[in-house]
Amino acid sequence: MSPTRRIVIMAEGHFEWHYGKTATGIIRYSQDPVVAVIDSTHAGQDAAQALGGDLGRGIPVVQDIHEALRYQPTTLIIGVAPIGGDLPRAWRAQLLTAIEAGLEIISGLHYFIADDPELRAAAERRGVTIWDVRRPPDKKVVAAYKPHRPGSHTVLTVGSDCATGKMTVAIELDRAARARGLNSAFFATGQTGIMIAGRGLPVDRIISDFIAGMVEEMTLELAAQHDWVFVEGQGSINHPGYSPVTLGLLHGSLPDAMIFCHQAGATTIEGYPHCPLPPLPRLIQMNEEVVNWLHRQHNSKVVGISLITRGLSLQQAEEAIRRTEDETGLPTTDVLRFGPEKLLTALLQHFGAATS
Amino acid sequence: MSPTRRIVIMAEGHFEWHYGKTATGIIRYSQDPVVAVIDSTHAGQDAAQALGGDLGRGIPVVQDIHEALRYQPTTLIIGVAPIGGDLPRAWRAQLLTAIEAGLEIISGLHYFIADDPELRAAAERRGVTIWDVRRPPDKKVVAAYKPHRPGSHTVLTVGSDCATGKMTVAIELDRAARARGLNSAFFATGQTGIMIAGRGLPVDRIISDFIAGMVEEMTLELAAQHDWVFVEGQGSINHPGYSPVTLGLLHGSLPDAMIFCHQAGATTIEGYPHCPLPPLPRLIQMNEEVVNWLHRQHNSKVVGISLITRGLSLQQAEEAIRRTEDETGLPTTDVLRFGPEKLLTALLQHFGAATS
């Protein structure tokens, strides 16, 4: 995103860690300043108070777009991703106000703002840009099953469920790799990652026949230019609703290695209490098997685990990490709490061993 | 389809078994007569001669739409499904001629005829209907992971690759079940099946986030009304391009049992010579595992196999079937050659045993 942006995030009713994950992702990783967050249920607090941590200190949470305009934003980001992704009706008036005030609109909803006649007409009148980041490229590409550039390393984040840190881990690993001087890229595949990176592929909006093909095309392009490609995973292979998206990423990116992401203590798919998670070692094996159905000679492996330990004490977090390491035999951390170095080291060792 | 239709099938350059599978499916299963097939490379033959068998005896293969109009068709079906699914350029003039002659157009291409300005305008002028069977419902449904009606049996056809008989087996089993007086339905999920059934869900055109949800919705609806639901599978879980579609069907329909479909003798994915097929017992186990990732208490099983033995002598076909039975321990047949009774019996026994 251009460095002149001043961002206001629309997160009405959802400015918290879970459903507000686009908002927290933008605050954490955007290159441009977030000047306000709209959520009337937290108005008057700052973002850090609303979230109950350090992230967002000094960013005001406001009642509505009218109050947000005091902070001279240039850009309204729709930072809530409800299940299904539609535009909440109550937001239409606020979006119109933002457009009339000259703000560009960036939306990650399944409902395309630029296709809404009223909002599009308002944006055209005011000369304002609408970027629906979930709008997929208008292309039809079937996967060709081509090898990646030899010497490149494609690493996909997978997990036990949605919202287990797959984007965060991919971004943190890419940044840590670049900090070490490695030639690395982050391949964004979801609305928040695309907003942060300014490019990417909204995989959950791609027609099922072409998802693997379009993921392959971008993976090959990035692996041609970079030695390390960290691909943001989506959903989970054991998710009743989103597993096809996950499989499109697994078979499209054909990762050389994976990092597994998990919410510490979770035992069922969120929102599906009757759908228990398989044990972690089995979940890890499942993801490895799925890649190796196609890619047997490469023997793709999960080489590390990132847990979300938010809400646990430091001691509890360390215990959860140790238990996971005992259960799986894999190096484990919480990248947000303890940094990505342990996982990056595991990846470097894995490929060092594999190429020696 | 209405019983007053007289069908001409456009299969230019592709009126053969493999890429012409829409054409052969329509000839075999449509309730309405096929009065001509367009393929200039076989013009002058009848369909049976062109295909090298008994199917299509007496149906003329003609040079172009002009010649086809002699047979007084009411309906032009586009019966070729090339990889990617676009409209071949050379066909535009023939489609315009058909529209101007008052024929309705039924197309299974990814390219929507009704969205083509020139063809749509021509159809509107002439008052002709265009049915793009691959156009998905304009809905957003995330799978809810709801149980099917107790007592219903959902059977999905899976396979080692595309074009291994999954539609044919589902149709044949549904017909055989109804012939035995069972309350059965066929759930069409591809262009040919939808043309034959007159309804269905074009799963390969559905956005990845919603494929499992939309398959679940239709499965639940059919299982509420029918004791047997035979779901047409697509692709294969080990296909580099189409595996997400297959997984959407597996996790959306959550089959109680599966029939596995395979081209006798195939060892790699068609069009992907570097992508070998796992051994049949492993392929079968993979499909079972994928359902049971979600659906463990049901312990969904593959209960029979249908081989395509076309091109083999009777003795060779029987040997291929016997070898497959030895290798997998599962009842095996070629439903087109030997009928579906062996597989239907296996299903009845499987569920009889399970419910006793």
UniProtKB/TrEMBL annotation, chains A, B:
Source organism superkingdom: Bacteria
Pfam families linked: DUF1611, DUF1611_N
Residues spanning the signal sequence: none
Sequence ranges assigned to domain D-glutamate N-acetyltransferase-like C-terminal in this UniProt record: 153-344
InterPro entries for the chain: DgcN-like, DgcN-like_C, DgcN-like_N, P-loop_NTPase
Annotated ranges, domain D-glutamate N-acetyltransferase-like N-terminal: 41-136
SUPFAM superfamilies the UniProt entry points to: P-loop containing nucleoside triphosphate hydrolases
PANTHER family: DUF1611 DOMAIN-CONTAINING PROTEIN, GLL3100 PROTEIN
Protein name stated in the entry: EBNA-1 nuclear protein
